[in-house]
Amino acid sequence: MRILIIDDEPGMHDSYRRSFAPAAGHAGALDAMAVELFGDNDDGDADAAPAMAFTLTHAMQGIEGVTAVEASIARGEKYAVAFIDVRMPPGIDGKETAKRIRALDPDINLVIVTGYSDFSPLEISRAAGPADKIFYIAKPFEVAEVTQTATALAHRWQVDLELAAAREALAAQIVTLKEQSHELAANESRAIHIANHDPLTEAPNRLAFRRALTDRARSDATFAVAMVDLDRFKLVNDTLGHLAGDELIRIICTHLQDSVPAGGMVARLGGDEFGIIFDSPGAEAAAMECERILRGCCGTFKVLGHSVQGGASIGVIASAPTELRDPTDLMRRADLALNDAKREGRGIVRVFDESMDENIKLRRRIEGGLSRSIEKGELKLVYQPIVAREGLEVVGFEALLRWNTDDHGPISPAVFIPIAEESNLIHELGDWVLAESLAVLGEWPGQYVSVNFSPRQFRRHNFVGRIMESVQRAGIEPNRVQIEITETAIFDDADRAAETLYKLRQMGFRIALDDFGTGYSSLYNIRKFALDCLKIDRSFIDGMGRERESAAIVQSIVHLGRSLGLGVIAEGVETEAQVQALRVAGCSHLQGYFFSRPVDLEIATEIAHRRFMAEPETDAVEDDAEPLLGNGTHG
Ligand code: C2E
Ligand code: CA
Ligand code: CA
Predict the structure, then answer these.
(1) Ligand 2 center to residue 510 CA distance, Å?
(2) What is the spatial distance between Cα 349 and Cα 590, in angstroms, rounded to a whole number?
(3) pTM > 0.90
(4) How many CB atoms are closer than 10 A to CB 439?
(5) Domains of the chain, start order
(6) Average pLDDT, consecutive stretches of 10 residues, N- to C-terminus, the chain (635 residues)
(7) Ligand 1 pocket by C-beta < 6 Å: which residues?
């Protein structure tokens, strides 16, 4: 422990020296006193407290003392205590010395050694404060007085120093802690953001949408929930690549956000599906808003340098606070409306109504019945002749499925095929239809059977292998089987479809593109598919006599077919007039009620052996009993 003595009398220095001289037992007693003074009882044994060793520095004048302090600070060996005489002529006095020392070292303890009529303690502590670091000893002093004061102050100085160091360390730790907690908070808010947002569009995700919907449902707001689904998005993905798909999603999302009414929310629910919530006074207003939003999504967008035709379908439900509002149910109903919009041709807005729920129930019932239809023997096939334009030779028959239920009577395939198509049930039905169709070929002299395959069947794993196996098992030449598929089946995954069709055609199967003209395919695009013929959709044949447009479409399909070397079959031919018009247009084959309805196997076999259709006398069509759940297919 370092002590500084500043006094102009050499005799005084001797007294100090004597005071601090190490005397056995003496120092121990002093230490014990210090310990008692500060309550420091490390081990409760005062005798064991180490004696404090002092190093003295002697200065004869104030300035000399100040210089010593300066030097000590520079060396990093600071004094714990300075004893300062008050009167030290001719140099600066004790008060000034104390003031200067204090300016250099805020920690040092100053002991002012005063005579009787010197400065008051107040004056000195004002000059060299703080008061708790200034002490006084009156001259002449006792040896014990000096050592005791020195020991006590040195001890305190030491403790203060350690305390300051501890405080500094603590402050540093607090700073680190604060930084860490900032970082944690940032991490947390990032995590919350990620959990609630879609990374592609930065829009709220399904989770956030549900939460917002729950909040709204609890409030007393009248609002609307809309589900938006992009039309033909998969086509963009498949033809232009996923980057283009992503870009289109972002563009549409921005459009939705820009067009949603103030206070509304747009969320990306997944894939090409968005959810919107906005305040709206009722269903009609909500539908109008949605129409407006929809217009923003339609039109041509520039996507990575390509022009892409945008389009969407929207299902919407309005909800008043008077109703029971369950978020899950609201979303389900908006989804039902969306499905309806998509089924009805896309690009439209549908408002939910209760019948959609009823529809679902009916569909579930049909699905249940259908799954047992084969074992219950409720299915059968009927056959409709396809005739050549000239001479009306019967070249083949289209096999069409019939389901006569015990519970509901006959149900149209236009109703149950789409339902079967929603599950794997379609495969079971399809396998049955194919096996049945192949079995009849033995009874016909040479005609082919034309079998319908739905998109899901066509995309089934190993479609080609399965079909080949069935044909081989039945001992049939593939050229007696025509595969009817629709545009939807091939354009959803064009490359794969092209390959599948190529393989089938290589094996000798005939391929017909069904319902041609109703899909989205550009006429130009079909060139890359291996086809034998196009079947012009019935709606154009039907419209031919009435609308110029239909006649023009028929004409252009025939041209296209011819230029590609394909046959063209007109479906749904009902009148003599249509027959004449189609002959003129150049259709190679005709099919429809005018020649024959789809008939049971026996009659079909008779027709097959007769080989030619006689042109009926009249073009009036007798109608069979309509299927109960028909939807105009027999219109
Ligand atoms: P599609 O392939 O377009 O079949 C032609 C539909 O038009 C048949 O209805 C047929 O009965 C009807 N049709 C034929 N000629 C005329 C006519 O002159 N006028 C009118 N108004 N209609 C005519 P159907 O049998 O009700 O079949 C409806 C749809 O169900 C079929 O349309 C086809 O997409 C699907 N379908 C039928 N059977 C099967 C099948 O075995 N498998 C698959 N996947 N789908 C099938
Ligand atoms: Ca067909
Ligand atoms: Ca058709």
Answers:
(1) 13
(2) 37
(3) no
(4) 14
(5) 2-164 (3.40.50.2300), 206-357 (3.30.70.270), 381-610 (3.20.20.450)
(6) 93 88 56 51 46 88 96 94 91 92 93 76 78 84 85 89 91 92 86 88 93 92 95 86 93 94 94 95 94 91 89 94 87 94 89 86 87 94 96 96 91 92 93 97 97 94 96 97 91 86 97 84 74 93 85 88 93 94 94 97 97 68 47 39
(7) 384, 400-401, 412-414, 417, 433, 452-454, 514-515, 538, 571-574, 592-593, 598, 633-635
